[in-house]
Design goal:
globular, 44 strands, 10-stranded mixed sheet, mainly beta, Jelly Rolls, disordered N terminus, 560 residues, 48% strand, Pectate Lyase C-like, 3 helices
């Protein structure tokens, strides 16, 4: 088979032969495989794709990912997510090459060194339907990755082919939380360029995976500081089975990746996540740079790279709100949210937007440290899953909801949680979700708790305060609330809309200090200007009464 190496690989091979050159096995699987102990990035909500291809019509594009390695590890498996399993139906088993690379400069400024090369052929489709996503999984001899270096992998077809050589990877148009990103090379030209980040898992088969023997329920400890074991939430989730507890090591957060468990537990053996009071967040650090005598941040480029922002519409590369001047993210400074004034749309303190809205300008250069900005649209996600328990977790910095529940699910239990500083709700159940909260604080969101559809909630020991819109808000949904308190929320402390039905016992609210909404809200109450104690639609039903009080109940956090 005739094949020409890309220029950068040819130069590397002249300098030193790869440490390893062998065959690999490739399989296509429907579910996310249980691979742990190495590097990974999985954005479960991404719907975008990028092609790995070599066809006459579409041309050639090699594709892969660069990732930093903090602690040394060894890997014998790699899985990458594809948006569609359809190309694998072809009877032709296209040949490809997988290269593992080390980037001496840590980026793309210098040609990489080839660490290992593996040859394989595309696997057959195991019966997946049209349009179904899948995981392309590779097994190969052990490769070692040394801490303190940046590595990558690159997938290349060996010759031009047909439609089976146009594989669409699931990608996210931004860097990963640890600074990794997609890489691509066009037409064999030898120049590697930056691309969208892939969903990938690199490591070894986790205990409890399909390739391992059955085991009793276990505790899977996640610690991103560790040299081995489960260093990401995604790696522990991939290994989890009914009866397991995923435990986040105390002091190891925050975790800047989504928590999403696609597998259901059982009524007898739920899958449990114990966050140990740690934070799962969509926030990324915000760094101001000096420019033209001012300290500023290029917020236009940052926002243009966001694929989804709840409540905002993208037009001409810019996100717009139903209210003029609405800022499509969340800013915090030293852990405190910086709000926009409802009347002027100005930030209440410390920063302002440039006249064209492209830059965030710091008013006091001495205050340039400790800033964060919401960068991801999902934090804790439950989608069509049942019998999962989440306790002692903070969810912050989402461009949507902190705790976001969709689809059909039951036996979903939340204990001692906090949802704060999210662009939409701190906690939101949709569709036909049935869930229970015991102990929860929801603050500095658009709405504290906002449930809709046919969802059902039983909640006790709840505190909702300082949200820009509603504290407790239900649209058509049903709720039983006990020992709940709501205060300082911008539009209403308690609201039942549509055909919502609620039973309340020992629920209290503090009247607002003003009849006018003080801070800008962006979602359901965006156009509201008033502020009140409560509102119950004539079509809604409330059993019991919300008591008016002058003093809020003490707020408990997920760390207590």
């Amino acid at each position: 088979m005739k094949f020409l190496l890309p220029r950068f690989l040819a130069l590397s091979l002249l300098a030193a032969a790869p440490a390893l050159h062998a065959e690999l096995d490739a399989v296509l699987e429907a579910a996310q495989p249980a691979i742990t102990g190495g590097a990974s990035y999985v954005n479960v909500m991404s719907t975008q794709g990028m092609g790995w291809r070599w066809t006459k019509d579409a041309g050639r594009r090699d594709y892969g990912q660069i990732f930093p390695v903090k602690q040394s590890f060894s890997a014998s498996e790699l899985a990458v997510q594809v948006l569609y399993a359809d190309p694998f139906r072809s009877a032709r088993r296209a040949a490809f090459q997988l290269d593992f690379l080390r980037f001496p400069s840590g980026n793309l400024t210098e040609p990489p060194d080839v660490v290992a090369t593996f040859d394989g052929t595309l696997p057959p489709n195991p019966g997946l339907g049209t349009g179904e996503a899948a995981w392309l999984r590779f097994r190969f001899p052990e490769v070692k990755f040394e801490g303190g270096s940046s590595y990558g992998f690159l997938l290349r077809f060996k010759e031009e082919g047909a439609a089976e050589q146009n594989i669409i990877f699931r990608v996210t148009p931004s860097s990963t939380p640890d600074g990794g990103y997609g890489i691509m090379e066009a037409d064999g030209g030898g120049k590697i360029e930056k691309g969208p980040s892939m969903n990938f898992l690199l490591g070894v088969s986790a205990p409890g995976s399909a390739s391992a023997a059955p085991r009793p329920p276990a505790t899977l400890t996640v610690d991103q500081r560790a040299a081995d074991g489960y260093r990401t939430l995604a790696s522990a989730v991939a290994a989890a089975q009914p009866g397991d507890t995923i435990r986040i090591a105390p002091g190891s957060g925050p975790y800047r990746e989504p928590l999403y468990i696609p597998r259901s537990g059982t009524a007898e053996q739920p899958i449990t996540v114990d966050g140990s009071g740690e934070t799962i967040t969509g926030f990324d650090p915000l760094v101001f740079e000096e420019r033209d005598g001012e300290w500023s941040f290029d917020v236009a480029s940052f926002l243009a790279a966001r694929p989804n922002i709840q409540g905002f519409t993208k037009a001409g590369g810019k996100w717009t709100s139903v209210v003029p001047g609405g800022f499509p993210s969340v800013l915090v400074h030293h852990g405190r949210r910086v709000f926009q004034d409802a009347a002027t749309a100005r930030f209440e303190e410390k920063v302002r937007l440039s006249d064209d809205g492209s830059r965030l300008i710091l008013l006091d250069p001495a205050q340039r440290d400790g800033w964060e900005i919401a960068a991801r649209d999902r934090v804790v996600v439950i989608l069509n899953a049942s019998h999962q328990t989440f306790r002692n977790i903070r969810a912050t910095g989402s461009l949507n909801d902190g705790f976001n529940l969709h689809g059909t699910g039951e036996g979903l239990v939340f204990e001692n949680i906090e949802g704060s500083q999210n662009l939409d709700e701190g906690f939101s159940a949709h569709d036909t979700i049935a869930c229970e909260i015991t102990g929860g604080v929801f603050t500095q969101n658009d709405n504290g708790i906002g449930n809709v559809g046919q969802s059902r909630l039983v909640a006790r020991d709840i505190r909702t305060f300082d949200n820009t819109g509603y504290g407790l808000w239900f649209l058509d949904a049903s709720a039983t609330l006990e020992n709940a308190s709501s205060w300082g929320n911008g539009v209403a402390q308690f609201a039942l809309h549509g055909k919502a039905a609620a039973t309340v016992r020992n629920v209290s609210a503090v009247p607002p200090a003003s009849a006018t909404k003080p801070r800008m809200s962006y979602e359901e109450s965006a156009k509201r200007t008033d502020s009140r104690l409560q509102e119950i639609a004539v079509t809604a039903r409330c059993e019991g009464a919300v008591a008016e009080t002058t003093a809020p109940a003490p707020a408990r956090t997920a760390a207590q």
